[in-house]
Each structure stands twice: as C-alpha cells, then as structure tokens.
Amino acid sequence: MRNFSLGKLFGIRLELHSTFILLIAAITGFLAIFDFPSLVPTLVLLFFLFVSVFIHELFHSIVAISKGIKVEKITLLPIGGISLTEEIPEKPLDEFLIAVAGPMFNFIVVVLIALLLSFFPQLPWPWHIFTDPAAGAEELNQALLDFPLFSLFWVNLVLGAFNLFVPALPLDGGRVLRSILSWRLGFSKATRIAAGVSTVLSLFLFLIGFFSGNIILLIIAIFIYLGAGQENEFAALKETLKGVDLTAVLNKKPLILKQETTLEEAFQLLQKKNQTAFLVETGNGIGFVSVDVLEGIKRSRWPVVNVAEAAAELPKISLTDSPIKIVTKSLSRNYPFTLVYSSGKLVGVIDEEQLRKFLKITKLNKESQH
C-alpha cells in the first residue's frame, strides 16, 4: 500500500504513511460496528495525534533548513514522523538543535494548555485523574474520549516525552545522545554507542510488549531496532568514504536515448544490453526509463509512446558536494542514476549499481589495511 500524498509545504513533500491510514480505517470500522458512541471522540483524538506529529516534524524541518540542510519529505506515522533530509548534520550542535526542536513544540503545547487552565479552571477537564489515587488506565482512556482539551494535552505530553527521553535511534532522544557523544568521540563512534544502546532498549521494550500483550510496544521495539541498524550502517558508510574520490565512478559519457525513441525500442535495447534502466532525453533535461516504468504502461502502447513522455525524474548533485552527501542522495532514493553537475552543466552520471560495487571494494580495501 502506497503512502498518501498531502502536497507540499515550504518545498517539502508531505506524506501520510500507509500504516496511519490503515490505523484510522481499522479503528473507524471497529468502532462503527461495536462502539459507535466512541467513534467521533476517537477520531478527534486521532486528529490531534495527526496534527501534533505533523507540526512536531515541521519544527525539525524548519531548524534543519535554517542550518542549510535540505528537507525533501516528511512522512507521518502513528508513533511519530520521519523527515527525509539530504544529509545528517555535520556539527553535533546542529543535530542537537534539530533533534530537540520537535519535542519542544509538544512541550510548548503542554505548557500553554496548563497556563490556559490556570486562568480558566472552569474549562472541561478531568481533574479526578490527577486527584484520585484510585484512578487508573480505564479512567484515563475514558478521559481522553470525554475531554478534547485533555486529549490534546496528553497526546503532546506523551509524544514529546517519548521522543526526547527515550535515548534510542532513530528517535529524537537517540539523536540527542549521539550529538552529545559526538562532541568528544566523533560521529562514527558516537553512532555505534547510540545504536548499541538503542538495540538493548528495543529488546527490552519487545520483551515488555510480548509478555504484556502490548502490540504498540512491539511495533515501537521493531521500529527502533531497524532504525538503529540503519543509523549504524550509515555511520560505517561515512567512515568508508573518508578521503575517497568518487570521480572514479563518474561516467562522463553515458548512453542517453533520444527523446523520440519509443518505449518498444527502449525495451529491446534493455534486453540487448541486459540492463534494467536507461538515461533518456526529456523536454526539461535528462530522466530515466526503467523496467518499473515500463510495467506501469500497457504493452500495446509501447510502440506509440516515446521515452520523453514516460521518463521519470532523477536526483541532481553538485561535483563539489561531499562524498557522503553524494552517496546518500544516490542510494537512499533507489534511483538507478544520479546526475552530476558543475557550474550548472551536466558533467557526468553516477550509476547506482557501479557505485555499490565501488563502495564494497573500498570498504574491503580499508578493512584489509587495519
């Protein structure tokens, strides 16, 4: 199931993750059948969660942009969000400020609601939750449905506290931990330590979720475990790229199909060359046609559709960009090629497959020297 596009804001693509959509659909369907009176209050709670996660991620992105880091996409999940950036901040202070920006929004909402209640104590609020020692989970859950202001307060309190105070990557708390360690230990070692802490915490959360039957905790544990692994791989990649010249994999004279080439002709060439993608001319520059692109078009139309009409866009990088920025932009989006420019002119293309081979050889070479 694909993510749902919400458009763009400040040039950042916004997406609602498929799990968020499935969660809303599942809860709506269940409550409509078995507990209809709770349907509207629950949807209000989910709306507060959606808005809070969205603005939480937006705060991250605004600070990142202020630090010169381009944010390409924000994906909203039920347990938080993911901001896809071109690179991880080089300076520990920058990563620290970006990491705390999201939770700060949540805590600002909590403080504002508390101030509002201090001036207007007559507002609908479940005071018994805070004054009755016997109040438990059942009373809390009911209060979240009965008092919208309290549900907004609780969503932001939990979202902010969970993200900031759980020191696990890829959560904000894990990034704060890494940024603090990076001041003394450097990025790679700090990431290894933070990833190790994250793995231990994920296993701990998984065991608690498993024995308590808490599905949400199980999902969070898996999310942290996988995210920590990815962060560790990125740190290793960054270490591999130190002192590496990527011009070795720059194809300065790539094969580019003319824009009038039909899809049928492109397919025949794909078969002949045993490739899965080709660069093609478009009206706006250079794009690509791949097997995946062809699969989305009926075979009967291949002889009458040219490659320029079907071409997909490619990422662009500058020859002066750092190796880690070039590699992350080339590999993280699963594009077959990346266009390399210098002074506004195309100087070559990096092939994703060739880049992966080059990185494997470079890593092996560096490891053999230690």
Query: How confident is the prediction overall: mean pLDDT?
Result: 82
Which sequence of strands runs across the widest sheet? 1-2-3-4
Main sheet properties:
4 strands, mixed
Q: Could you tell me the radius of gyration in angstroms? A: 25 Å
Q: What is the β-strand count?
A: 11
Helix content: 55-70%
Distance between the termini: 45 Å
Oligomer: single chain
What number of domains? Answer: 3
Shape: globular
Judged by helices, strands and strand pairing, the structural class is: alpha/beta
- Stretches where pLDDT is under 50 for at least 5 consecutive residues are none
Keywords:
alpha/beta; CBS-domain; four-stranded mixed β-sheet; globular
Summarize the structure.
By secondary structure, this protein is an alpha/beta fold. It has helices at 18-34, 39-66, 92-119, 127-131, 137-146, 148-165, 172-185, 187-212, 215-240, 263-273, 291-295, 307-310, 323-331, 352-368, and strands at residues 4-9, 12-16, 71-77, 80-85, 250-251, 256-257, 277-282, 285-290, 316-318, 337-342, 345-351. A four-stranded mixed β-sheet has the order 1-2-3-4. The chain has a four-stranded mixed β-sheet with strand order 5-11-10-9. A three-stranded mixed β-sheet has the order 6-7-8.
